[in-house]
Sequence to fold (121 residues):
Amino acid sequence: MILVFEDESEAWFGEVISDHLEEAQARAFSIIEAARKEDNGCLTTATVRPSKLRFLGRQVEAYRFIYCVVNQVTASTQQVVRHRCHNRLCVNPDHLVLGSQADNKQDDWLHWAYGTDPDYL
Ligand SMILES: [Zn+2]
Fold:
């Protein structure tokens, strides 16, 4: 049995935010600026799947990186960055929110059942 005492995701974001914040934010904003602006405010990357980036020796989804760097949040491996707009290619920090994997599943269910997300806007 392996016991994990340190969450590697939290530790990595901690290092990014405390030691490399300026560079990380420059990366985040360059992705945001390159994205296409949709009528609903989404900023969509020109990729089929959510784009990833490599930073400080780690590969991470662009939207997760952008949310954490812009808001200076250290997300743990248990925490997911959710899309309130249900557009997984969106990198607009205003459309992203931190939650659990269960929240993410419920979002999908509510979206499927009602076509809307009650806490959106
Ligand atoms: Zn969006």
Summary: Residues 8-114 form a domain with the Homing Intron 3 (I-Ppo) Encoded Endonuclease; Chain A fold (CATH 3.90.75). The chain is about 40% helix and 20% strand. Helices lie at 8-19, 21-34, 62-71, 101-114. The longest helix spans residues 21-34.
